[in-house]
């Protein structure tokens, strides 16, 4: 009996250096009943031709060329062209282990789940694996209210009351989805041009209709740090975009009737995102005085301070607690030193 068709969506934009590595990891999968959709999002480099070349080599590959509209919209194009029983969304500058689809498919079929979540490995710009994040949950299968009450909060952030980390990842690429749940609910990704954490915002809506999740405690995905993606320019609207995304996620929680735990975890994620923004500030190619001024504008913002003061940080690491406290006290010079050390 032939196993079900799995659609693999690869949004492609300006990744000429990495595209072959990604496509090879997909076409060489031990699981062969694949539909591979290469969505060329108006890429300005050699990717469009590379896509066509790959389609000539493997009949399972379908190429869609479209005007540039961003990652979220490219993934949606993949959904609209997919005919598989299950679907995965992988970034085209990353890659997967050669039995990733087989393991994910077997697990999702075994439990008749709507989503299977798996772990990943961080890969440095030198190609070396830096660390693996493997899911560590109390059990393998969650259903009914457990999905919204246990899985979703743990996807967003560690438990602030216990400090427990499950190493689940709320990202489009760390899972395999049932196509039926997507089609039945007409679900689509939001644009990262509107929401800086579009995966989180989009998946909040999907998880409201998910009734079964299975965990696969293995790292099947390689998330790559690419030098070309690292920025040394700080755009001042980045903080505002983080704030807008957080506010939009909180509103979504009200609309979807999620509990307070989900909202609290989103606060932790928001602050973590802001710390990431602060790292970009201190790495930016500008004067030290300008870096400090940009830090000050963020840290003294009333909205950020309000979220900071509402958080329970008792279970955070010592270094994080120190950073949180100096940010609360608006000690800009100390924050600058600490962020430089973290960066």
Query: Distance between termini?
Result: 52 Å
Mean pLDDT: 94
Largest sheet: 10 strands, mixed
Low-confidence runs: none
List the helices and strands and how they pair.
Layout: E1 6-12, H1 19-27, E2 34-41, H2 47-57, E3 61-66, H3 71-80, E4 86-89, E5 95-96, H4 100-111, E6 115-123, E7 129-133, E8 141-143, H5 145-156, E9 175-178, H6 179-184, H7 198-207, E10 212-224, H8 237-256, H9 260-283, H10 288-299, H11 302-310, H12 318-328, H13 332-342
Parallel strand pairs: 1-2, 1-4, 2-3, 6-10
Antiparallel strand pairs: 4-9, 5-10, 6-7, 6-9, 8-10
What does this structure look like?
By secondary structure, the protein is an alpha/beta fold. It has two domains: 6-229, Spore Coat Polysaccharide Biosynthesis Protein SpsA, Chain A, CATH 3.90.550.10; 237-342, no CATH class. Helix content is 46%, strand content 18%. It has helices at 19-27, 47-57, 71-80, 100-111, 145-156, 179-184, 198-207, 237-256, 260-283, 288-299, 302-310, 318-328, 332-342, and strands spanning 6-12, 34-41, 61-66, 86-89, 95-96, 115-123, 129-133, 141-143, 175-178, 212-224. β1 (6-12), α1 and β2 (34-41) form a beta-alpha-beta unit. α7 packs parallel to α8, α9 (260-283) packs across α13 (332-342) and α10 (288-299) crosses α13 (332-342). It starts with 5 loop residues before the first strand and ends with a helix.
